[in-house]
Amino acid sequence: MTPLTRIETPKPSSKIRVGVVGYGYWGPNLVRNFSEARDCQVVAVSDMRPERRALVESRYPSVVTTDDHRDLLNDPNVDAVAIATPVDTHYPIALDALRAGKHVWVEKPMTSNSEQGMRLIDEADRRNLVLHVDHTFVYGGAVRKIRELVSSGALGHIYYYDSVRVNLGLFQQDSNVIWDLAVHDLSIMDHLIDARPVAVSADGSCIAGYEHENIAYITVHFDTGFLAHFHVNWLAPVKIRHMLLGGTQRMLVFNDMEPSEKVLIYDKGIDLNLHVQDDHARQQILVSYRTGDMYAPRLDRTEALAGVVGEFARAIAGRRAPLTDAASGVRVVSLLEAAERSLRSEGRRMSL
Amino acid sequence: MTPLTRIETPKPSSKIRVGVVGYGYWGPNLVRNFSEARDCQVVAVSDMRPERRALVESRYPSVVTTDDHRDLLNDPNVDAVAIATPVDTHYPIALDALRAGKHVWVEKPMTSNSEQGMRLIDEADRRNLVLHVDHTFVYGGAVRKIRELVSSGALGHIYYYDSVRVNLGLFQQDSNVIWDLAVHDLSIMDHLIDARPVAVSADGSCIAGYEHENIAYITVHFDTGFLAHFHVNWLAPVKIRHMLLGGTQRMLVFNDMEPSEKVLIYDKGIDLNLHVQDDHARQQILVSYRTGDMYAPRLDRTEALAGVVGEFARAIAGRRAPLTDAASGVRVVSLLEAAERSLRSEGRRMSL
Amino acid sequence: MTPLTRIETPKPSSKIRVGVVGYGYWGPNLVRNFSEARDCQVVAVSDMRPERRALVESRYPSVVTTDDHRDLLNDPNVDAVAIATPVDTHYPIALDALRAGKHVWVEKPMTSNSEQGMRLIDEADRRNLVLHVDHTFVYGGAVRKIRELVSSGALGHIYYYDSVRVNLGLFQQDSNVIWDLAVHDLSIMDHLIDARPVAVSADGSCIAGYEHENIAYITVHFDTGFLAHFHVNWLAPVKIRHMLLGGTQRMLVFNDMEPSEKVLIYDKGIDLNLHVQDDHARQQILVSYRTGDMYAPRLDRTEALAGVVGEFARAIAGRRAPLTDAASGVRVVSLLEAAERSLRSEGRRMSL
Amino acid sequence: MTPLTRIETPKPSSKIRVGVVGYGYWGPNLVRNFSEARDCQVVAVSDMRPERRALVESRYPSVVTTDDHRDLLNDPNVDAVAIATPVDTHYPIALDALRAGKHVWVEKPMTSNSEQGMRLIDEADRRNLVLHVDHTFVYGGAVRKIRELVSSGALGHIYYYDSVRVNLGLFQQDSNVIWDLAVHDLSIMDHLIDARPVAVSADGSCIAGYEHENIAYITVHFDTGFLAHFHVNWLAPVKIRHMLLGGTQRMLVFNDMEPSEKVLIYDKGIDLNLHVQDDHARQQILVSYRTGDMYAPRLDRTEALAGVVGEFARAIAGRRAPLTDAASGVRVVSLLEAAERSLRSEGRRMSL
């Protein structure tokens, strides 16, 4: 562990000085967004691979690099640490960072299991530090608009939730498609739906001789009887990002592959009327179908990750929990854990 | 039961004289297709509702109508009976028809349970009569082309099967969405996939206060480990008829809502290679992605039901089992029964 | 000319008794819609081809058929005559029908030239008879909704009109693609746009060695400087029915190939601001772009032709001009004539 | 004009040292692609605006910047000059650059008029320098595949060419939509079609009170009778990039808005047969329609501009004309000039 040979960065009035751990697939997006944010600056990046560090150096000459993330934790110039490493390293790095007094940003999924997540919450609470999970999609224009529609009652009472996220690749070496793709959808659901999930079942398949599931179906059961269902697949010939949300007042389609009209709201639904038939005095339920206009609200097109960065900065400034706090991170990991247990138990329904 | 007051229809050399039981939603399509077929003619239609019989009379002045289907069974001018009544009446009517020496066409689902289906098979076999199930989609240009691709090995070994059939309504009074919509998809799967299903699990929800499930997810497990999954929903704001079929050689999308290019075949896939890493001698699986051309074969656009009628006529002429024979009808009913059992058992996997 | 051997049809209180001339491609739709209309009934159909008459007889046993349309004109039981024959026969048949005191329905295009159309107007006016042109699309849910949006000012001042109608076939023997396809679009434009067209230019090509143009582009120039443009093509691999309508307040896409959301209204536009640059005191126009929600109004799905029939019946009952009166028919024929003249004159702009 | 205060860049064996004039909308793409190319390096960038130069400096610390493009022309370290300035400055800068012995890359449209283009060709020829026009789309995977299909005869003899390029904005201050958008489509057509255009007609409209045409239609007439047609529009609510190409053997749709299957090839067409009718011995042309499979070839997804850069480098290395040479630039400018003349002459057909 070499000391960082760097001239002390003078602390600017309000900029949060961030150290980023891991410059692999997602790290570059973090560094770019932190760099472009008004309230943040990237002071250091760690990555064990020399070629990744070289890339940082060429792109950001003023950012210090190191092969050891502990250099960041020990650096008094670092206010916050963003962790974008493989999921099984999230817990130890985040724990060390909190113990070093840093605010922490963790990539999704937050930890390998919910117990680790709880311990991190304890540690952050004790030290009054911000612990923030990067559930990126929650900050996108589409999901924010849908949340607004759900909250305002525009959809009415929600009937069901159906989500499909499939494409060809990229196979992960260390996890299955649930931990890789469903984590996005479960974090969106966690944000949109106020009811409490009580059980999870999942089926999946390790096809093409792969060691992890590359296709899976997850059902989340809620205390209200509400069902949410997720299809995730690394082996689909087409890229589908599609969500259906049915409500008593309106129904919604979220198609993230559409370049502009991603959220379509249908003024459609049914009305059930109890009806007594003349001839046999039998009761019959009459279903009438209601179809009205469709509309597609304009969506904010700001990059979602810029919103995540802004929320992190504001949470630190205000010493408050961020929108996607550690509790949401743990809830999502609990759903993933339960889905995993169900996968290993012939798809049986697992209580949360 | 009134005798049919009709001048005997002279039996033409080869035309099969059909009596149709039930002129509700599907019956009119049967009568029209039998009328237009070269080898068939409709001689009588029964329906208990006077207004439905009046409709037959105005459209087909030469066809005799009756309010009692037994008139058809007793009529020596009727060679075959087509049953398009509610599913719980299929068994008694079909049994009586077979006993009266008629060839029988039954709508899907064939019977309310598989035991009834087996008894019908026994009865038909004993009497050397054709017993035929109207799994209409099996005869459509799209499914026939897909079957051809599967059989020829163009897709390679099949990886997975994913099917979505959702729209707004029509709610059925006497059954749930599985018996109404999934019956189509299960009969398509039964036709396309040669492996043997061994278990079924299903989750669903009776939303909007409806007494039957109006949304459901079904997973069919095969002896080879293969998974097929079905989403059926009566409460979706958009009509989706979408199927994904992944194979080792090619992948396929069947979108029945497309006006012409319904079946798209993607020359896409993955290759897994075992790879020994230099540094730690750890084994790693390298996944490489293959993407080539896409093509959409021209499909026969003949109405599927005309094909079903033709097959029924040829099976009678040749005294052979039709393509969609009673055995396929029973297999599909067994899948529906198992799905229903699973729905009633917290989604547990039910053996077939 | 044989007399119609028919028992006199007793004249019902209000039903208009229609004779249909021509049972080719469109005639069957006329007969069906007149038959199903509350206020009309078809009493006779004429067609020179025996096999077409046989078809009428099998479908409508109570309708009298004849090979000579003059039988219809001479029949006192016929109140109105609908003419669905080749366009060059419209004028003589319509003239004879008016002279025989019948109300007249003519298919589009109304006549082979505008002079014929004017003469028919004179004849109808003199006899106080209804002369009606079947510009079917004007009565469709989509065009009626667009007319409503234009009239209410929801689109603002209309900027431009762009229409594409292309597909593979059907080549007409006796006319080019302008008289076959553009007639639809010009009649829609005539209905939607209140400004006055003053000139037309057209380019086209007789490809594949065909004697008539099978691809053409038409530009209609208005007194306000407004441009409307039309692309019609019998040789396109895909079927496109697409219209763009730009206005100061909103913009509209009409895609008739969409099964349900055919009309999309975009709250989009531009604002121009004159701006004086600081440095050189040069004026600059600043364009700002406005993008808001999109919405798709629910459309009436009633068959358009049923609406045409209803309007014809009401016009006869009220002795008033129908929505698509002979004047609109002549305006559309004038546009077609001018386009044809331009085609023969190297695409030069022809005044109307 | 300040001398460039820079240490001499040692000339690497084969790298072409490029100076880029203009760092506005397109310049950054040029600098990025030249920087990433194996055979090129950017040594200097000129732009009159200090904030644009600052941007270059922050992104490319090793690149020298200047406010005067003449510094680049005088710099012996610059082998080639790429000009990405407003179109009316292309000619003087390119002429000076050639006179200074530099190879020249000019953005599209090459010059304000074809005479200027001819003079540049003379100058480049005299000095044996490469003069290259950046018709970017010609190097994209889609257009290269279409060219391959046209050249191989897969489409047969080409019937027609129809192109639509519309969207909302960006209005240009100094030119109309023809010089801004149609230049792309005319350069694609110039590349794809071997026949010789002989005349051009155009109609357009200056809507929303704008001083330049923001919507236009162009027809290009060929010596073979072949027609190509172009619709360009800055005021459309939706972005359309759509091309139809009909041939005797196959037909093609190029939809550049599709994320992956951009080029669809339809095995569709017609056959005309002369037919002598029995009854009147009249000749009739029978048209039969042929419909077969559709396929979408895999396209090279390399950024088109990287291909342009590669071709420029290879042309310099080989002292040969590039694929998009100055002659193609002049041909495209001639088409734009003729379209402009037609716009000013009531849409009359202008000979080339």
Which tags fit this structure?
9 helices, Dihydrodipicolinate Reductase, domain 2, globular, 6-stranded parallel beta sheet, 9-stranded mixed beta sheet, 15 strands, alpha/beta, 2 domains, 32% helix, 352 residues, Rossmann fold
Topology:
Four copies of one chain form a homotetramer.
Chain A: E1 16-21, H1 27-36, E2 40-46, H2 50-59, E3 64-66, H3 69-74, E4 80-83, H4 90-99, E5 103-107, H5 114-127, E6 131-134, H6 141-152, E7 158-168, H7 177-192, E8 197-205, E9 215-222, E10 227-233, E11 235-247, E12 251-255, E13 263-276, E14 283-296, H8 304-318, H9 326-343, E15 350-351
Parallel strand pairs in A: 1-2, 1-4, 2-3, 4-5, 5-6, 7-10
Antiparallel strand pairs in A: 7-11, 8-9, 8-15, 9-10, 11-12, 12-13, 13-14
Domains of chain A, number: 2
Poorly predicted runs of chain A: 1-12
For the largest interface, the chains and their residue counts are: A-B, 53 and 53 residues
Assembly state: homotetramer
Give the end-to-end Cα distance of chain A, rounded to a whole number of Å: 42 Å
Structural class of chain A: alpha/beta
Order of helices and strands of chain A: EHEHEHEHEHEHEHEEEEEEEHHE
Q: What best-fitting shape of chain A do the alpha-carbon axes yield?
A: globular
